[in-house]
Amino acid sequence: MKDFSAYFTMKETDAIAYATTQLDMFDHNAELTCTEIGDGNLNFVFRIQDKKTGKSIILKQAGPVARISSDIAVSPDRNRIESEILAIQYKLAPGSVPQIYKFDSVMNCCVMEDLSDHVIMRKALMEHKQFPLFADHITTFLASTLLLTSDVVMNHKEKKDLVKSFINQDLCEISEDLVYTEPFYDCPRNEVFELTRAFAKQHLWDDEALLLETAKLKFEFMTNAQSLIHGDLHTGSIFVKEDSTKIFDPEFAFYGPAGYDIGNVIANLIFAYINAEMTMDAGPAKETHTSWLLETIGSIIDLFQDKWNKLWDEKATDRVAQYKGFKSFYLSNVLKDTAAVAGLEMIRRTLGLAHVKDVTSIADDAKRSQAEKFCLIVGKRFIMEREQLTTGAKYLEILKAGVQHD
């Protein structure tokens, strides 16, 4: 019998043994099968199913190093963080995240609800599918999880206890390096598409004004314990189907700037937009898909503000939060961070270590380079003009100007 009293990295057969001996979720005569389904940069993810009943679960295990690079050591405590934040988000935004059934601190794994009836949003968007309810779903999740974990609403001592619990040093360091630092110089660890390199040097690496702004943003990220954020909220961390949106994989969670999560969502929808622009043939299908993506991007910015303001009026507890003008001041800073992070994400996914398939899958080299230059120019504008990006319409102006620039 397999011994799970000491940590080791599991394989599929081990995951079945774990489900049989460590969980009370299947019948004693279940016929269990297991498939490793994870394709991420950090973890091992297994789907375990009973062939007789169809019942299934997900088992996710954290390893001691990142799968993307053995040079990146990461604490397995991230699995504890993920389990706990999903439990918090499950309460704050019911129906928006998978349910957690168990966390095992020895094996550094968690067991959660299987969402196999959903699809990964990035994959669905690259197949040019639309999800009309997504903007409504994601803004409800963002407003609820970001505002309700802030000092505006929470007891300040309880919030500070959460800040301590979610200090996530290793994964924050990854973000500090891969998002805020390495994309902005010719770092040896970067993976730069050769047709884009000269453009990156001219427009980003040699632009001292831009570099100064990224330094300000990096230290904002490191010091602003504003809200309990997901920390890596891209379209590869979202499951969707026509009537449902589920956010998962919050292992980068910590207390940081609220705009970080919103900006990541926006940037990854823009990746889907530029993918469609470069890969779809001209015609009604392309027009429908790109129009929906642009509408969704704009709607997220505007709906988020509406829901945030309504929730603030209902839930704010701190006396000074009621002072005239403070709500708009606070929200304006969240929106400023949103724009900046959208720009950072677009740039780092183009020039850094971790790219996105929306862009790398563009087979035509010239079109891929065109897409990457679009991301760099738009991303730079988002950073430099972040104080003006207060409505969805302003984002769309820059996106349309970026396409014309190409």
TrEMBL record:
Enzyme Commission number, as recorded: 2.7.1.100
Q: Which GO terms describe its molecular function?
A: ATP binding; S-methyl-5-thioribose kinase activity
Organism lineage: Bacteria, Bacillati, Bacillota, Bacilli, Bacillales
InterPro entries linked to this entry: Aminoglycoside_PTrfase (IPR002575), Kinase-like_dom_sf (IPR011009), Methylthioribose_kinase (IPR009212)
Superkingdom of origin = Bacteria
The UniProt subunit note reads as follows: Homodimer.
Q: Where is the Aminoglycoside phosphotransferase domain?
A: 34-268
Similarity remark = Belongs to the methylthioribose kinase family.
**Source organism of the structure:** Paenibacillus albiflavus
Q: By what name is this protein known? A: S-methyl-5-thioribose kinase
Q: Which UniProt keywords apply?
A: ATP-binding, Kinase, Nucleotide-binding, Transferase
The record's SUPFAM superfamilies line, in alphabetical order, gives: Protein kinase-like (PK-like)
Q: What class of enzyme is it?
A: transferase
One biological-process term from Gene Ontology?
A: methionine biosynthetic process
